[in-house]
From TrEMBL:
<dbReference type="GO" id="GO:0009532">
    <property type="term" value="C:plastid stroma"/>
</dbReference>
<keyword id="KW-0520">NAD</keyword>
<dbReference type="InterPro" id="IPR022383">
    <property type="entry name" value="Lactate/malate_DH_C"/>
</dbReference>
<comment type="similarity">
    <text>Belongs to the LDH/MDH superfamily. MDH type 1 family.</text>
</comment>
<dbReference type="InterPro" id="IPR036291">
    <property type="entry name" value="NAD(P)-bd_dom_sf"/>
</dbReference>
<dbReference type="GO" id="GO:0006108">
    <property type="term" value="P:malate metabolic process"/>
</dbReference>
<dbReference type="GO" id="GO:0005739">
    <property type="term" value="C:mitochondrion"/>
</dbReference>
<dbReference type="GO" id="GO:0009658">
    <property type="term" value="P:chloroplast organization"/>
</dbReference>
<dbReference type="GO" id="GO:0006099">
    <property type="term" value="P:tricarboxylic acid cycle"/>
</dbReference>
<dbReference type="InterPro" id="IPR015955">
    <property type="entry name" value="Lactate_DH/Glyco_Ohase_4_C"/>
</dbReference>
<feature type="domain" description="Lactate/malate dehydrogenase C-terminal">
    <location>
        <begin position="237"/>
        <end position="402"/>
    </location>
</feature>
<dbReference type="GO" id="GO:0010319">
    <property type="term" value="C:stromule"/>
</dbReference>
<dbReference type="GO" id="GO:0009706">
    <property type="term" value="C:chloroplast inner membrane"/>
</dbReference>
<dbReference type="GO" id="GO:0030060">
    <property type="term" value="F:L-malate dehydrogenase (NAD+) activity"/>
</dbReference>
<keyword id="KW-0816">Tricarboxylic acid cycle</keyword>
<keyword id="KW-0560">Oxidoreductase</keyword>
<dbReference type="InterPro" id="IPR001236">
    <property type="entry name" value="Lactate/malate_DH_N"/>
</dbReference>
Amino acid sequence: MAATSASALSIGSTISNGSKATPLMQSNTFGVTFNSQNHIKSFTGLKAAASVSCESSFLGKESTTALHYSFARKSQNQHQTSRNVLQVKASFKVAILGAAGGIGQPLALLVKMSPLVSDLHLYDIANVKGVAADLSHCNTPSRVQDFTGNDELANCLKDVDVVVIPAGVPRKPGMTRDDLFNINAGIVKTLIEAVADNCPDAFIHIISNPVNSTVPIAAEVLKQKGVYNPKKLFGVTTLDVVRANTFVAQKKNVKLIDVDVPVVGGHAGITILPLLSKTKPSVAFTDEEVHDLTVRIQNGGTEVVEAKAGAGSATLSMAYAAARFLESSLRALDGDSDVYECAFVESQVTELPFFASRIKLGKKGVEAVIASDLEGLTEYEKKGLEALKGELKGSIEKGVAFAQKQTVSA
């Protein structure tokens, strides 16, 4: 996320104790003052510039346009001074479970930059105190607290609005996502039990792989606890969309911020199905390009695992994608009525109980699943959809069976 050459927009968001954060950057700063409810809904702390050039941010083209309009309208109504301050109502509490890990640390940094976050709770079984201390020195509004081990998990989750779970072991060369199942399934089960007991109304973002199985595990645990709300449980598949957008932009030499490729199915191998025929803006692909792009998007994680040669998996891009999805959730909670993302959720768009597709997000979670994306598919996409169903069905059933065999703690 490269900084722009334009004058920087400083952030002086008010936090609950009434103090203000120091501006992120010192230069010929220019800013406007507005409330997040009406005007900040498309803003991301990762891109703050007077020019509102958001080419590298989480924002899509429509959101960027809305943000630019907000700046222009407010600046017309204000006296211009040498330095104004953007004030944002940071009001949401976010917990990251697994915050000391390879995904957790960069994710925590990105979340710390969000102007919508008032409190950032970092949890892990070890080594999280140093991460929290490090992040707490960043002059952004959110207050950082660390929580270590099971004894502190309940306090970490108290009154939290969104829980993000990247906890678990990473993939290594030669491993599939299913190889991670036995370890990560138990971790997710334990964490979801705590979520059910301490913040049952929170949005729950599952990153821990295999997502095709860990989301059904989470659903079963929440059902057993009597607090399951399918509208608030999400498998984060945003990385598949991020990769699809990036690879298509590179292949077709189009402006990245304009590109939007819906990705449906699941979050592993052939269950990842980019709908290239639905790409916006419309672009023409040869059959060879469709095949090559689809395979690359499906194997994006393996590409990174092999490139890191045993040193890890896709941590930075996953953290970015998770932060993007979180920012979308916070915008929806904050009242934005035009928030869409792809996610792995309980769904009726196919015969499968869970399916990744575009959803509309609102204050209460999933407001709508966009079934129309599965209409008018190409023959290649139709075959891909049918091919993924068997594998995805097996992964879902594996997760459900695991959860049903386990005893949920009271």
